[in-house]
């Protein structure tokens, strides 16, 4: 949520920052802006995407080897040119970009106003740059010291980068609850919200911790201190991220690329953790804490968005395969409702980005109650991966499309492996069933490849229902969360209102909405409640709804009653979500494209939600 990128070195900063902003655009695209120092400070900003900024800035002087850039997801103040970052001090010398929310901005603004500061924007961020200016001038402080003093007054979350035309060889960054990465190049430095704008130049990075500040000097030195001025000894990480992973690779959209990557990403999530020939699974991150896992009185899963849907499926998995009572929580609810968490609980956070503010806060709260906290995360080095006692990366690779696809299936793989591992260790799963599930899991990548071949058929169905205003998704058991996920995918990217429901619950409300204009997507693969779901389809048809059924290959019964069927390979029931979600991802994708929507950057959404 909001992307930050900054450069100090011997190259021209403008092209590096613009390219970086394009890579970070998934974090917000309400406006974009850049400041450069070349003798004096120049700032250009524009409502809309990075392309709008480029069109605007090209008429001006864009020289300079020190610069900062920002792509915004609006919180305080509407998306327009004025509220766009960077924000500049009253004397036009200090420029600042910010990701997060300064919660006490109103009080600070009032006090600064009384001291004679004028504000141009409605943002919380502008207050911070004026506060820095106030300290710098009144107390004759260096920019570094002024930033430190200002941050000590700020309440809330921030990743900021600041530069000052009076000290044109310095770049300052700081973070609290919002991510900031320092890239160490050859005579050049980068600061960014994540490593994607940096990786082209260097793979050596330092992830700043909360309440840390970095001061970079053009002479080649940098220093990291806490905002209380204590010198830190940071660890330099070497990233294993390739530039191609951040490109579309010939696909029209990142989302389509990511849907098609799933045979590979799902296999990557299993690599080294499963052996189908020998019949075992082992999840490395659980090994060190195995006793706490096997003796857990309860597992609590906390997540948001699509990750929360993966958590719902994990509840079925952990309870069925490992027989551990499991609860699923929206992280935002868990953190604020004074829950009962004990030291014998295991709290698992699911997060693609590893940065979601509510998930992070829920974890911190659980940690303080003494629970074991575990992360199932995609982004290596992310905040959640660093605050948890232990965890498992899902290894899906960078996910750029705002609507999550491959991260979801990889989360499911890791959660399935964890449930199998635990069930086996606790002696709660029959050996033959354990082995059958392992063999079936190993075969999932092949089956996903087969489903992807149905693309044209799914595209045709998309064309038939593209003009719907509403849609209903129904599923049962393991596939009830897939109904929720299918509906979420559709509303996120095509702006069609959609609801997911447990199929049997349909008659307690949504049935009232069904008429000849209502597409009803039913996950009706060959599973335990098959006959029941056939009845649900009949109920929809009796009210003239348009039924699109996801069925198992060879199904004949549903084919006769549904308007459209999509046949997918059969698998063991606990693994069926890994297959049934794929056609739903493709269906939403094609509908969104046909409706002319921006698939990768849907309106108002951001990939990484770092504010509450
Ligand atoms: C945002 C994204 C979703 C994602 C959710 C949780 O809403 O648009 O795709 O599922 O955040 O994100 P996380 O990174 O914690 O999985």
Give a brief description.
About 35% of the residues lie in helices and about 25% in strands.
Helix proportion range = 25-40%
Q: Give the beta-strand count.
A: 26
Number of helices: 21
Stretches where pLDDT falls below 50 for ≥5 residues?
none
Which value, in Å, is the CA radius of gyration? 25 Å
Helix and strand content put the structural class at alpha/beta
Biggest sheet features: 8 strands, antiparallel
Report the principal-axis shape: globular
How far do the termini sit from each other? 11 Å
Mean pLDDT: 94
Placed side by side, the strands forming the largest sheet appear as 3-2-4-1-10-9-11-14
Bound molecules: 6-O-phosphono-alpha-D-glucopyranose
Please tell me about this protein's structure.
By secondary structure, the protein is α/β, with parallel strands linked by helices. The chain has 21 helices and 26 strands. The protein has an eight-stranded antiparallel sheet with strand order 3-2-4-1-10-9-11-14, with helices on one face. It has a six-stranded antiparallel sheet with strand order 5-6-7-8-12-13. Strands 18-17-19-20-21 form a five-stranded parallel sheet, with helices on both faces. Strand 7 (156-164) and strand 8 (170-176) form a beta hairpin. Helix 17 (455-465) crosses helix 21 (576-594). The longest helix has 20 residues, at 406-425. It is globular. The termini are close together. 58% of the residues are buried. The mean pLDDT is 94. It binds 6-O-phosphono-alpha-D-glucopyranose (G6P). 6-O-phosphono-alpha-D-glucopyranose is lined by residues 304-307, 351-353, 356, 359, 402-404, 605, 607-609.
């Amino acid at each position: 949520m909001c992307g930050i990128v900054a450069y100090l070195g011997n190259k021209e900063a403008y092209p590096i920052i613009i390219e970086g902003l394009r890579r970070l655009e998934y974090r917000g695209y309400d406006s974009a802006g850049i400041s450069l120092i070349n003798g004096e400070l120049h700032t250009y900003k524009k409502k809309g995407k990075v392309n709008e900024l480029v069109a605007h800035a090209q008429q001006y002087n864009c020289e300079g080897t020190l610069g900062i850039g920002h792509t915004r997801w609006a919180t305080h103040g509407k998306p327009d040119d004025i509220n766009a970052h960077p924000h500049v001090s009253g004397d036009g010398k200090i420029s600042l970009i910010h990701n997060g929310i300064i919660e006490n901005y109103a009080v600070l603004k009032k006090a600064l106003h009384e001291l004679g500061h004028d504000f141009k924007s409605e943002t919380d961020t502008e207050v911070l740059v004026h506060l820095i200016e106030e300290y710098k001038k009144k107390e004759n402080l260096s920019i570094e010291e002024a930033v430190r003093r200002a941050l000590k007054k700020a309440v809330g979350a921030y990743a900021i980068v600041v530069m000052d035309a009076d000290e044109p060889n310095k770049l300052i960054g700081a973070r609290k609850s919002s991510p900031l990465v320092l890239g160490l190049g050859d005579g050049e430095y980068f600061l960014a919200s994540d490593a994607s704008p940096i990786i082209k130049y260097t793979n050596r990075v330092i992830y700043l911790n909360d309440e840390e500040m970095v001061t970079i000097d053009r002479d080649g030195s940098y220093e990291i201190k806490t905002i209380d001025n204590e010198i830190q000894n940071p660890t330099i990480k070497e990233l294993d991220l390739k530039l191609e992973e951040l490109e579309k690779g010939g696909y029209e959209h990142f989302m389509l690329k990511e849907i098609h990557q799933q045979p590979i990403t799902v296999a990557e999530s299993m690599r080294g953790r499963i052996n189908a020939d020998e019949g075992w699974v082992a999840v490395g991150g659980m090994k060190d804490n195995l006793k706490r896992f096997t003796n857990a009185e309860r597992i609590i899963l906390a997540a948001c968005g699509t990750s929360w849907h993966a958590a719902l499926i994990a509840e079925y998995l952990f309870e069925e395969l490992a027989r551990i009572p499991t609860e699923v929580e929206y992280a935002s609810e868990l953190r604020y409702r004074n829950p009962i968490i004990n030291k014998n609980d295991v709290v698992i956070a699911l997060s693609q980005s590893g940065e979601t503010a509510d998930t992070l806060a829920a974890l911190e709260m659980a940690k303080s109650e003494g629970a074991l906290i575990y992360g199932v995360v995609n982004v290596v080095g992310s905040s959640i991966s660093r605050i948890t006692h232990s965890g498992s990366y899902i290894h899906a690779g960078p996910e750029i499309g705002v609507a999550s696809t491959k991260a979801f299936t990889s989360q499911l793989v890791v959660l399935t492996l964890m449930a199998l591992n635990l069930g086996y260790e606790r002696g709660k799963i029959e050996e033959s069933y354990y082995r059958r599930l392992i063999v079936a899991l190993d075969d999932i990548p092949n089956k996903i490849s087969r489903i992807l071949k149905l693309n044209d058929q799914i595209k045709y169905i998309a064309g038939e229902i593209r003009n719907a205003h509403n849609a209903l998704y129904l599923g049962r058991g393991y596939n009830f969360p897939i109904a929720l996920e299918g509906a979420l995918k559709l509303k996120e990217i095509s702006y069609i209102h959609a609801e997911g429901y447990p199929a049997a619950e349909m008659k307690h409300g949504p049935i009232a909405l069904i008429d000849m204009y209502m597409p009803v997507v039913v996950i009706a693969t060959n599973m335990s409640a098959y006959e029941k779901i056939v009845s649900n389809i009949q109920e929809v048809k009796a009210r003239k709804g348009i039924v699109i059924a996801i069925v198992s290959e060879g199904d004949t019964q549903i084919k006769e009653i549904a308007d459209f069927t999509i046949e997918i390979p059969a698998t063991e029931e606990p693994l069926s979500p890994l297959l049934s979600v794929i056609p739903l991802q493709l269906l939403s994708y094609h509908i969104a494209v046909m409706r002319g929507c921006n698939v990768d950057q849907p309106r108002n959404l951001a990939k990484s939600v770092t504010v509450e």
